[in-house]
Design brief:
The protein is mostly helical. A hairpin with a 5-residue loop joins strand 2 and strand 3. Helix 5 packs across helix 7. Helices cover about 60% and strands about 10% of the residues. It folds into two domains: about 130 residues, Arc Repressor Mutant, subunit A, CATH 1.10.10; about 60 residues, no CATH class.
């Protein structure tokens, strides 16, 4: 779907007023945008869509913890084949037209100063609607969300298995996972359990005892 949209936005270069009138109007003139300006907007928007996460519509590189690493303007300009100043003017136009939103990322340091990181950009759903892809977008986002949920569930299961294997490996082959140990692992990986289950799990993991008769 994203590839389809990238192909479709090229129509803006030939028919800006018909395709994306809000973007064509950012120059605050009744005249059509200059061809160089339209070319930069199409190139940069195509680059942003290439790195768009379907579930969140945020632009960046997905991380293992589920977050998104933003992309610098230098990277976007180089990937789009544009100079930095030209890419900055293009992103300004896309934001002014409501097609792209920018969320700056900063971190406060100990000396009360702030450190800036690559901003997180997000694509508006209105862009998909403008090309008749709104229904397709909803369908693909639901599929992508389900795929992500399955991957997270598998990662959680692997994490639990690794914890159990690590605990069993400390006491040699005679150790085995007990209901108490499982309760303890569940607490370590998924959240709080009863105090009794925690203590029983710790005791079982230390002694290697089997379940009580």
């Amino acid at each position: 779907m994203l590839r389809t949209l990238i192909e479709r936005i090229r129509e803006y270069y030939d028919s800006p007023q018909k395709t994306l009138p809000a973007l064509n109007a950012v120059n605050e003139s009744d005249r059509q945008q200059r061809s160089e300006r339209r070319e930069a907007e199409v190139a940069l928007l195509g680059c942003l869509l290439h790195y768009t996460d379907l579930v969140t519509l945020r632009v960046g590189i997905p991380q293992a913890d589920g977050s998104i690493q933003g992309l610098t303007m230098e990277f976007l300009a180089k990937t789009s084949g544009l100079g930095l100043r030209r890419a900055e003017r293009a992103i300004h136009d896309l934001v002014a037209a409501g097609i792209v939103a920018i969320h700056p990322i900063t971190q406060r340091l100990e000396n009360c100063a702030y450190k800036g990181f690559a901003a997180i950009r997000a694509i508006s759903r209105s862009l998909f609607d403008a090309f008749g892809l709104g229904k397709w977008l909803r369908h693909e986002r639901e599929k992508a969300a389900k795929r992500r949920e399955k991957r997270q569930q598998k990662a959680n299961l692997r994490s639990r298995a690794n914890v159990i294997m690590a605990m069993n490996g400390k006491r040699g082959p005679e150790r085995r996972t007990t209901p108490q140990t499982a309760a303890f692992v569940e607490t370590r990986t998924n959240g709080p359990a009863s105090v009794g289950a925690i203590l029983a799990g710790i005791k079982a993991s230390l002694k290697g005892n089997g379940p009580p008769s």
